[in-house]
């Protein structure tokens, strides 16, 4: 039972790490797209 708990903890840490990294990457990507959009609009005026 103790071994199973350790595996579960390790698995959850990996899941949190992956989802956290994906979330940050997504945010960075969205900010990049937003900034390039603002720059494109600014260059028109």
List the topology elements:
Elements: H1 2-44
In quaternary terms, these chains amount to single chain
What's the rounded overall pLDDT mean? 92
Task: Look at the helices and sheets and give the structural class.
Answer: mainly alpha
How does the major sheet shape up?
Answer: none
H/E series: H
H/I helix tally:
1
Tell me the number of strands: 0
Distance between the termini: 66 Å
Backbone CA Rg: 19 Å
Give the overall form. rod-shaped
**Percent of residues in β-strands:** under 5%
Helix content: over 70%
Task: Provide a descriptive summary of the structure in words.
By secondary structure, the protein is mainly alpha-helical. The protein is built from one helix and no strands. The protein is rod-shaped. The mean pLDDT is 92.
Short précis:
By secondary structure, the chain is mostly helical.
Output the keywords.
rod-shaped, 45 residues, single chain, mainly alpha
